[in-house]
Amino acid sequence: MKILFKAGNSANAGLLFIRLSLGLLFLLAGAKKILNLQEFIESVQAMGKMSDNAAFILAFVLPFMELVFGGLYMIGLFTPLTSIAIAGMCISFIAVQGPWHYELPFSHNFVFLACALATLVSGAGRISFDALVDKGGTQNKKTVNTESDQIIRPDVTEVPAGDIEKQVEVRPRGEPPGEST
Predict the structure, then answer these.
(1) How buried is 97 (Cβ within 10 angstroms: 0-12 exposed, 13-18 middle, 19+ buried)?
(2) Is residue 78 part of a domain?
(3) How many structural domains compose the chain?
(4) What are the distances in angstroms from CA 76 to CA 31, 82, 131, 135?
(5) How far apart are CA 85 and CA 36, in angstroms?
(6) Would 96 be classed as within a structural domain?
(7) 143 CB-contact burial (10 Å; exposed 0-12 / middle 13-18 / buried 19+)
(8) DSSP assignment, residue 135?
(9) For residues 59 and 42, what is the distance between their CA atoms, to the nearest angstrom?
(10) pLDDT class for 149, splitting at 50, 70, 90?
C-alpha cells in the first residue's frame, strides 16, 4: 500500500529524471539544428516573425544555446542559471509558435517551462554537480577561534534547572571563575 501513496524523500530522484529528460531533449534538439544549421536558419527566416537579420542571429545562436544549456541541465551544473535560460527559451517558443498544439490542449512547451521552473525553485537535487560544488564549499570552511571571539562571546556555563535565580558572576577578562577580587 505504501507504493500507492508516496509523498516522501524521493525528490532527488525526481529532479534527476526531470533534468535528464528535459536536458537530453534540449541537447538533441540543439544538435539536430546544428547539423542542419542552414536549413534551420532558412526556416526561421521563412516564418516572417522578425527581420531577416534578427532571424539569422537568433537561428544561429539558438541551437548552440540549446546544446550547452541542455548539457549543463542534465549534469546539474549552474542549475539556477540553466533553469532560467531554458525557461526563457520555452517562453520564446510559446511566443513564436503560439500557446496551442494541433493534437494537445496546449503547447508542450508549457510542460517544459514547468519543469525548468521546478528546478529553478527547488534546485538540482543531491544527484548533481551543483550538490558536489556546494558540499565542497561548506566543508572547507573552518571555524577559527581568535582572541576577539573571546571578547564578543562570554563564558557560558550550564545552570541546573532548579537554580534559575542564581546570579551571573561578573569578573575581569581572563580571570578564572571564583577568584574575583
Answers:
(1) middle
(2) yes
(3) 1
(4) 19, 9, 8, 14
(5) 23
(6) yes
(7) exposed
(8) H
(9) 8
(10) very low
